[in-house]
Amino acid sequence: MDKQTLNVAFATQKGGSGKTAITVLVASYLHYNCGCPLAVIDCDFPQHSLYEMRERDSRAVLENEYLKRMAYEQMREPGRAAYPVQKCRVERAPDMAAELAGNGNYDLLFFDLPGTVNSSGILRTIAQMDYIFAPVSADQTVLESTLAFLDVLQRMMLGKETSRLKGLYLFWNLVDKREKSELYGRYEKVIAGMGLPMLTTQIPDTKRFRKELDAENRTVFRSTLFAPDKRMVAGSGIPELAHEIISILKLSGYEETANR
């Protein structure tokens, strides 16, 4: 039987949660560092931030000789050509996913979803996700909003015949090392009481997550066209998050190539 392409989203109900940045970083790490064939569907209308990032990345490469050589060298390696980034309205996303999955070229499809369930067609699209990973910060408003959102999905979709949803996971994002660990412990008790699993990876609050292509300093972190620079990925939590996701999704053959 052919292996099913998995649909995955980083989703919350609060703006500024960093879901788009994390989507790009995890997708690029899995594809360019681990060799995992994937595509990204940006259905966060109207901004389509991820699709616009691909457009900026492409212009930067065309306008800069250093980045052009870097792209050429990367694309010469098997499996390291740029992954597709498609944009559409959220109600169209399941159909676009079916088209991409139909060619059998991808193990994963990442979705950048709108930040509200009030968007037309979003519940139909969420029902087509296999796994949702929700970034949360130690902020009561953010946490309550995200838990309410996940509670609805847990009751309405998780494990239901009308949905593909197999797993809901949370992970700490924007972690301030100065915050007391007891604060996270209290929140985690509430989350555990809801039966929602929390990943062990914590993503720190650092300015590097806002850093895109920089030809002058010759560093790359957040990019749709390049693997994140080893110097910048260290301590970011992205490799650890990517490996946890690989394990949860039961993807084989990618752990061994993660450091290439």
TrEMBL record:
Pfam families: CbiA (PF01656)
Domain CobQ/CobB/MinD/ParA nucleotide binding: 8-212
CDD domains on file: ParAB_family (cd02042)
SUPFAM superfamilies xrefs: P-loop containing nucleoside triphosphate hydrolases
Protein name as catalogued: CobQ/CobB/MinD/ParA nucleotide binding domain-containing protein
